[in-house]
Amino acid sequence: MSIIKSIFNLKCPRCRKGNLFEVNNPYRIKKLNVMNDNCSVCQQKFVIEPGFYLGAAYVSYALQVLVMVITYLTLSSFTNFSVNWIISSIAIIVLLVAPYFIVLSRSFWISFFVSFDSNFKNN
Ligand SMILES: [Zn+2]
């Protein structure tokens, strides 16, 4: 599994097999941010230090802004929507993608600090 596929599938960055989150579906809102303490396959700790995932908020913010800009440019270029409709559309789209972006940004963040180890069983 490639690093990109591992990030998007919310897998452990070290072994790329174990799940980062207790429930892998971010749209089950009650369990949205509940991470496993350790990887079930390689035992990698997922909360490396207190406040580790604060930086993931910036990743999530950047993704949200990117979606807003792309949506705005697409709707203003290819449709005759009024500004109110464009803003409403952006708000709906951002709300729909927000849960996935929250978990995706955490997955991206830990992958930035923990590298892949194909020999994880012996290390
Ligand atoms: Zn693992």
Search tags:
123 residues; mainly alpha; 3 helices; binds zinc ion
Helix content: 40-55%
- Total number of domains: 1
- Rg over CA atoms, rounded to whole Å, is 17 Å
Tell me the fraction of residues in β-strands, as a range: under 5%
Number of helices: 3
Counted beta strands? 0
Q: Tell me the overall shape.
A: elongated
Order of helices and strands: HHH
Poorly predicted runs are: none
Q: Distance N terminus to C terminus?
A: 20 Å
Class from secondary-structure proportions: mainly alpha
Look at the structure and give the mean pLDDT. Answer: 93
Please outline the major beta sheet: none
Bound molecules: zinc ion
Nutshell version of this structure?
This protein is mainly alpha-helical and 123 residues long. The protein is 50% helix and 0% strand. Helix 2 (54-78) runs antiparallel to helix 3.
List the helices and strands and how they pair.
Elements: H1 3-8, H2 54-78, H3 83-113
Helix pairs in contact: 2-3
What does this protein look like?
The protein has 3 helices and no strands. It is an all-alpha fold and about 120 residues long. The chain has one domain (about 5-115). Helix 2 packs antiparallel against helix 3 (about 85-115). The radius of gyration is 17 Å and the shape is elongated. Zinc ion binds near residues 14, 15, 17, 39 and 42.
